[in-house]
Amino acid sequence: MNYKGYELPLDSEHVLLDASLTDTEVQAGSYIYNNIQSMLRPTPTEDAINSKKMADKKLTVYIMPGVYWIDDPEADDTMQPWGGYDVPYGIAVTAHSLEFTGLTDDAEDVVIAGNRGQSHGANGNYTMFHFECESLTIKNLTIGNYCSTDLEYKRDASRNHRRRTDAITQAQLAIMQGDRMFADNCRFIGRLNLRPVEGADRALYHNCHFESTNDAITSNAVFVGCDFDFYGSRPLFSATRTGAVFLDCDFNCLEADPRVEGMQYFTKDGGQVAAVGCRYHSNFDVPFGIGWTRYPDPQLRCYQCDNTHNKESVVIGGLRSKTTVDMSGLPLLKAYRLDDYGCYNTYNLLRGSDGWDPLNVGVQSGACSADNIPVQLILSSDAECIQADADSVQNSGLSAGTVSGAAASSKAVVSSRALCFWGGIGDAGNITFYVDDIYKDFVNVNDNNDGSCTVTGRPEAFCNIDKEYVDVVIEAVTAIGLHGAYKLRIDAPVTEAPQFTKYPELSICNGNAELSYELELNGHTDRSVVSWYRCDGSRGEGARLTAITRNSPKLSYKITAADVGSYIGASVIPRCTSSCDGAKVVAVTDRRIADTDTDGYDICTDFSDIPLNMGKNIAEGMWSVDYYRPTDTCSFGSWHGEECTEPWHYGITGDGCTHPGLYQGTQGARIMYTPTYRQNDRVKIYRGMSLHLTAEPAKTSCQGFGSAYQYMDVCIKFDTENLTGYGLRIYRSPKASNACVFVLVQYEEGTTTFISDKVISGCFVSECIIDVKYMDGSLTADVRTTAEQHALQEVHLKADVPDNLHGGIAVQHTGTTGTGGWQNTTTLTGLKVSYK
Length: 836
Description:
By secondary structure, this protein is mainly beta.
């Protein structure tokens, strides 16, 4: 059939989509549609091509220039996940093979558009398409989710459409279940979580354009001659399997605020990436670097050759990066580029077992003997940890492994496997195992001449160092230039527990309980485990854990009003570097704590000694740590906090968090403190109180949380048993991607009500200083940040509220923990509570 100058074989497997046709014209023809919705998403009364009979057939869709919305862009409903999928999809298509071809040379002429995203027209990460097919081909068209960016259609300005929201929200394009995906001369437009076509076993993008922020680009694909507008510093969430390959690509670095990181990375969560002949472009007035990922795993190896930044040669990751392998002059380069023919070796990368060759370079690849070259070297081990001199430890009868918690093994066999990009096993040539000079004193590496090596520890290396273990990176290199690495932990030989030369004693001095003891350490560091208790009796009866040791023994305990009338006890488990645990010894004060031993009811902590045992366990003068899902989070989707045994962790995470503190171990993490209400037959009534909290959100763009409406409540005047009181809520705004909403809330038996105006601000960024106060019927909150670029965005809230008698505090976090278990968290670094 000749249609507007195109010869189109229209039939049940070849159909036409033309937005310029009227419904009458469509009804008069065969295999012709003017609406992608009726063509691919039928109702029971519509004759659509996406029926079960297509599951084993090939379908080709020819598309004339126009804008094709997959649903009504003005719809104000909220789409829910359907059909058993875990996210809401616009259209699901099933066929043996699919091809969408725009009848134009300019991909901007044909636009397939969506206009929904997370919390903006959808509950979940809205995705325009779900493709289930063996083969998918897309040519000469644009697929765009215009939820967070404007549609500008140059052929007809009347088809322009403004974004649904100014917030940068998760709005995805396509997920595919199948083998092969080929996109040629296409444009993929969106922002957060773009996901052009994610999931194919083999994927190739050729001469395509991408616009995105973070967590966006396909994680396992080959990109040739493509250009990328990066509006975020980490466009890939991760590179999976054999990774992502970029050949002859342009990267336009358009980060909104380069001062935050000053870097353009590929991934947030790591994974192998290769870049050959690529060009970075930036135009910032601050130093700006190029890297693979901010927190590279020591086992990660990425490959590069002939890349530039602003026309100057650049080594991604830096010249001294262990992550970077420069392929210049290596045989491995032929796996990616065939210099003899001036082309890129996509056949080697994507051939599979069926010889797939969409760019027709198989002949050249074979002529160079470069059609089966592996690109990834994976090292694995039969043990994650070995103990130096484990055999002699076992023979001595000592309890090997009590320090590290790992089973003692005297050796590890590290094996290798070379993979082609498409997943097949390849021949990388002879392999050599080695360690850097800094590790040679700790291990022996013996080549087994079968692609593996045996690693044993050297106990003498630990004689003059005060370490319980060292992490050693076993490395390997093949004849063609592939590199691999495996991190192996080497535990020091276990020694006997140190003996007391002076047994533990407690004294009360200047508002503190002081612990003293002496050990025979023989030059090692004291790593004894000290725990503090509030006791009912002089022999430690009714002991309740109040403080613990982290890192080094806690020898001083701050006495509070909650301790008055009780004895203070301390237990010591003697231990030094790499020793076994000794027998626990307990000391108790010789008298009960008196009013004169404490300064009052105020609380001051950096959280370093707070026990984090799971359980609500409400008791006066005690912290409680648990998981809790508030009733106003029912729309957040499924949670798994009830499966968590450690709702909070203590440590340093990364990104915006640079100091140690408490951070969330699960969604729904909650920590509360219940003050003392009765003391010496007196009832304590709490009137005025103030809370000063310092916090460091891991996110550096002021949005604080992983998704819209996730929040953190900071509560005072709080009844920890009945969940009644007041607080400040900080939640991620659906209206802005670089700010949070701040509002005062009232709790009434777990139900919250907003009681102040809402303020949107960018001050929830490290270091964030939060002050919440109540005095004489007035509740106030003041929030600011020390971050220079956001220092003027202070928050000041006030509400008149009834008084109550409570003095408890709580921090409730409802956000997901994010990548690595921390990249969406907020670390609490300091707290001071004062009572009036």
